[in-house]
Amino acid sequence: MNMATTTMTEFSVVQQILTGVELDRHCAQCLSTFDPTTVRKDFPILQTLVRGKKPLVYLDNGATTQKPLAVIDRLKQYYELENANVHRGVYQLSQLATDVYEGARETLSRFINAGKSREIIFTRGTTESINLVASSFGRKFVHAGDEILVSGMEHHSNIVPWQLLCEATGAILKVISFSERGELDMDAFSRLLSSRTRLVAVTHLSNVLGTINPVEEITEMAHQAGARVLVDGAQWVGHFPTDVRRIGCDFYAFSGHKMFGPTGIGVLYGREELLEAMPPYQGGGDMIATVSFEKSTWNDLPYKFEAGTPNIADAVGLAAATDYLRSIDFPNLMYYEHGLMRYAENRLRQVPGLRLIGEAGSKSSVISFVLEGIHPHDIGTILDGDGVCIRTGHHCCQPVMDKLDIPATARASLAFYNTVAEIDALVASLNKVIAMFR
Ligand code: PLP
Asked: Using one digit for the tens of pLDDT, what is the confidence trace for 53-91?
């Protein structure tokens, strides 16, 4: 088995991971492709001790990722040397701030291979991106009796905005089921699609199950039925290359803080012709062309959707995060993360009474589990004593918990800076939990 060679495109590595059986026979080789110790030096927080004693073992990357110096320093540089309000200033400093802000948009456009930077709307994050589409696309294109399809494994932020839209319009929300293993039922999806379907909203990578959904196939099927597609890329963008044109989707939403960038900034990608046809999301400064008490008219894309002073510094910080991420050897980073996930799963399977939640064939970075007879919150609290940070609860996916008939899970979620030693620390700490409770 050859690991990444210079002739292999990143997308052929993604393909190998999605159809992972062959790759899974070479987990040890996957782990040797990338040395996390060098990148760990880029993250100051990873050098800290929890309560001054235990090395930080940060396994909550699905909630938010840590920030490299490249991002921290870029924010500092912006505030020290470039800060002014954008777009309206005639003076040099305002021009500089505008240039770095619009430069960030270009960078993000390239990062997801959007056709044009005017298709990139800066938002507060995935949640706001989805709300923008539900509110604006919904107001124009969704009517009573229309249907919105979501998958059964969505985060609340890809459920509730659609429920609000359905309440306001009389449209109907329908749910695509998934199997016990965590795989989307594509036959059920096909049966649900009809001429009434206006939009399909689906996660690229589930934050509870780790499932990678076949978003290209979903998009093709939805388009054949005349429906639009929104992909929630919150958990995907920090782990794999993203190509919105390859997917073919109409909207793609993600958050900066889950891909090593700042909090409070994210992106909505939308197809130009759709964004042009959609009404503004919020009203205020910058989104208008003209205002009078009789009538206002709207600015061009992308400004029509960015009312008020934008989050300039964090957009610039997010661009620095994408530059940082792209400076890492991506094919080998992907192999490494895959190997680390399989290593973690194999070690966890040996913990007495532990059951993995989510075992889809195409899976990445998220490992949920339950321990027989021990509440996940107790697990999380005891692990914290060892400096091991995991998340416990419903992970903003209550319908997933209901479907699997569990109250909560414990979840370890990985990034490229995590190590085999950290997985071993997680397992050792879990064995302590068991010794305490049994
Ligand atoms: N979608 C998924 C799959 C997520 O995991 C999350 C956050 O955990 C969100 C959406 C919401 O992201 P944010 O809180 O950054 O808006």
From this structure: 999 999 999 999 999 999 999 999 999 999 999 998 899
- At 331-373, the pLDDT tens digits run 999 999 999 999 999 999 999 999 999 999 999 999 999 999 9
Share of the chain above pLDDT 90, in %: 92
Query: Locate tokens 């929104």: which residue?
Result: 230
Q: Could you tell me the distance, in angstroms and rounded to a whole number, from the CA of residue 234 to the centre of ligand 1?
A: 5
- How many angstroms separate the CA atoms of 209 and 200, rounded? 20
Please name the amino acid found at residue 286: D
One-letter identity of residue 191: R
Residue of minimum CA distance from atom 5 in ligand 1: 207
User: If you write DSSP's letter for every residue of 71-129 in order, what string do you get?
Assistant: HHHHHHHIIIII---SSS--SHHHHHHHHHHHHHHHHHHHHTT-S-GGGEEEESSHHHH
Give pLDDT, residue 398. 95
Mark residue 248 as left, alpha or beta (left: phi above 0; alpha: psi -120 to 50; beta: remaining). left
In the chain the domains, ranked by start, together with CATH numbers, are 3-63+329-437 (3.90.1150.10), 71-326 (3.40.640.10)
Ligand 1 lined by 127 (C-beta under 6 Å)? yes
Burial string for 426-435 (b: 16+ CB within 10 Å, else e) reads: bbebbeebbe
Instruction: Name the residue of 60, 258, 409 to mutate for ligand 1: max ligand atoms within 8 A of Cβ.
Output: 258
Give the 3-state secondary structure of residue 178: strand
The atom of ligand 1 lying closest to the CA of 263 is 15
Type and span of the H or E element at 254:
strand 251-255
